[in-house]
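Translate sequence into structure tokens.
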Amino acid sequence: MPGKIITVSSGKGGVGKTTTTANLSIALAMLGYRVTCIDADIGLRNLDVMLGLESHVYYDIINYVEGHCRLRQAMIRDTRYPELSLLPAAQTRGKEALKVEDMVRVAHEAAEMAQFVIIDSPAGIEHGFRYATAPADLVLVVTNPEVTALRDADRVIGLLEADGYAPAQLILNRYNPELVRKNGMLSAETVVDLLAVDLIGIVPEDSKVLAASNQGQPVALDDRSAAGRAFRDIARRLSGEDVPIEALQERKFLRKLFGSRRKELA
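Result follows.
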């Protein structure tokens, strides 16, 4: 049975889309799943750096599409978790080098070898967004709790619905409950109400995320990191586990979203 194809998108750049892709990919591999992550941000390759695999890149997705190598040759296996492989983006080509049908073919071929295929979508809603979301079974929309990011996330969700693409679920990233209490940040409840989309996870603000990304060690590998735990919990939800969202906001809101889980949150 082919694996599930999941695209991580955002609309707005800088909200943590590539960080989310890297962490969910390695978190799923930590659970024992075969995972292939695809960097679809042609010309702006970063996923290899966040996974600590930049020195292993020889071929890339465009090399494969143009017939210069086999798919397995272009895929880089993670030495920490052999279940995880990366198909890197080309760094010296433009997004026009990859057509929608090319991405669909690559993703489906990768899904024959993996249980999860995670695609890191380029920022924006133009050609890169179209080819990254075309093969998806599910689109994870990453946003920060700020007005500009929410506006772009709403645009992405609207496009997915209007064009008949895969359903969307929301990841709220860099959430700070203390700022919410001081009215310095939108609450999770407000974000969900505004976007009217299912919430799959809240990732708290965590200073360890940047340092981990710079070191090529995704924060999901750190048991002491609150963000790492959040990414691991999202991975478990993607795999079908019934995992409550950690109480970063008042419990009343969480009971509203996950009513039957009251005891688990107590």
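Note: Residues 147-162 form the longest helix (16 residues).
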